[in-house]
Amino acid sequence: MIQLEAAFTNIIGKYPTYMRPPYFECGGNCLSVMDTLSYHTIFTNLDTLDWANTGNIQVSKDIFSGAINPSSPASSSWIVLAHDVHPTTVNSLAQHMIDTVAAKGYRTVTVGECLGDPAANWYRT
């Protein structure tokens, strides 16, 4: 994380306060280190599995819609996992997610806003 912080600082002059562990694997020791480094460790409550469905992105669209369509913005919120390194996610799934949440009346926000953190806490210098 410290090497990542240095890279972010060199590129944009600050570094984030949120971290999603790879493969969502972060046990007690990992969580303790992230806490010591003042990170919020983020998990998801909606995994599109886009990485597994690059050959048939409709499966990921169905996973997303299956969670969002029966829900209500008044009583549900989502931290969605999708990977921008996959062309099918960028070129198809992302637009589907935007259209679906807009049709349902959801608002898209940053992780920090979703968690109720003030914008001043989203990055550190």
Automatic annotation (TrEMBL):
Keywords: Carbohydrate metabolism, Cobalt, Hydrolase, Metal-binding, Signal. SUPFAM superfamilies: Glycoside hydrolase/deacetylase (SSF88713). Its cofactor is Co(2+). InterPro entries: Glyco_hydro/deAcase_b/a-brl, NODB_dom. Residues 1-109 form the NodB homology domain. The keyword Magnesium does not apply. Signal peptide: none annotated. PANTHER family: CHITIN DEACETYLASE, CHITIN DEACETYLASE-RELATED. This is NodB homology domain-containing protein. The lineage of its organism: Eukaryota, Fungi, Dikarya, Ascomycota, Pezizomycotina.
